[in-house]
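Reviewers of the previous submission asked for a worked example of the structure-prediction workflow described in the proposal, so we include one complete record here. The input consisted solely of the amino acid sequence. No template or homolog information was supplied to the procedure at any stage.
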Amino acid sequence: MSDVRARYDEERNVSQAAARTPRPEPAADAPDFTIITGLSGAGRSEAAKSLEDLGYFVVDNLPPALIGKMAELVRTDNAGPGRVAIVIDVRGGVFFAELSKALTELRGLRVPYRIVFLEASDEALLNRFEATRRRHPLAPVDRVVEGIRKERLMMQSLRGDADLIIDTTGLTPHELRDRVREAFAQGHPEEGLRLSMLSFGYKYGVPRDADMVIDVRFLPNPHWVDELRPLPGTRKKVRSYVTSQPKYAEFMERLKGLLDFLVPGYVAEGKSYLSLAIGCTGGRHRSVVVAEELARYLQDKGLAVGLEHRDIERE
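From that input alone, the workflow returned the following structure tokens.
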């Protein structure tokens, strides 16, 4: 395991050095460039198929060293495709060093890019490998668990640099495709930040792919009001109960102020996606009310906001 740790430390330093370099203004003929990566078995192929359905020119398993050449070939002034997606994995021995150089080259060419990272829980990945009987690319003598552990460690720094993280643990292939289509259906990365708003219940687990998590369990719970318990947070009675609580107005004012401060900073740093998760105990009442008000607030400011209530149908 020490050799994996040494490689991880070296590659993390390379990745972090590259990440500190700001992304320049895109060239007029620059394509929409997306890099799909992540853990083996997490759904990279399904994500690529979704982008292909959206009209992307998709190249699978392209060595990172060739990314810059690909960007030059597909420039729009050469009648190249306007949208390109590259799928890469860690099978190459010098993956991170080559990827860091490639990202530096893209910045030099003034090609805007985004990194999409797919992941899943160890249990989910193990089940998928067992179901398909495939060998993990980093697994010695078919020990899939060891391969998953090594790959997760090696990919940790790249995950931190990703613009969009998708946790596919509980997703079917169809649901993953829907998630990708929702994220990519609108425009180019330079057109602004796309925000994903998710309400959830802590009793069913915190979303692994959220950039920010807000806990609203301090608000009184409608679950303990008999007439409100069976109703979801989308109903007027529940919304009125939650919004009338003494701390609600001040909390929302402070939360909106925080987002007003943070969002321009994310945009200035070139972040294309921001995932915000709002959690309460069961994910049916308080988090739904807060998420819906925040989504409306941000939409009124001109942001593209997707809204999902993950646990609203659970009892």
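The beta strands are 32-38, 57-60, 83-87, 113-119, 164-167, 194-201, 212-215, 273-280, 304-309. We consider this example representative of the routine output the project will generate in years two and three.
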